[in-house]
Amino acid sequence: MILDYYRIFYYVAQYKSFSKAADVMGNNQPNITRCMNILENELGCKLFIRSNRGVQLTIEGERLFEHVSIAIEQLVSGENELQRYRSVFQRILQIMKNFHRGFPGRDSHCFFPLQDIHSLHWSKFIRHGYNTIVCRYIISHSPTREKNE
Prior knowledge:
149 residues, 2 strands, 7 helices, mainly alpha
């Protein structure tokens, strides 16, 4: 739960507004304000100077923002990398499904040169011998092959 508060804090500090942060996060301004009040109470200090024109970070808020921004940016980077991984893996699965539709019942092994797929750090997989295991697993568990056996 506290991670959610830090994420909200990050967006409020970025946009210097509870309302803009709420819009970006798909939330409402009263809920954002409530969460920031809870975070300030938990930390025992004020993080924002509130005014009619928006908010500014206090000295404590600025110090916290230095750390929170690094953490949030790392989390977003991790989410983006995961999305790239899933996208490439889904493409491999689609290739394998198409292969089995085209050659039903064939007993074959398919080797992908995973090091040629540039959007991931495949060297980690290759060092551990996973460059062929993924494809063999998909082939050995295909519905077409199970029906023929």
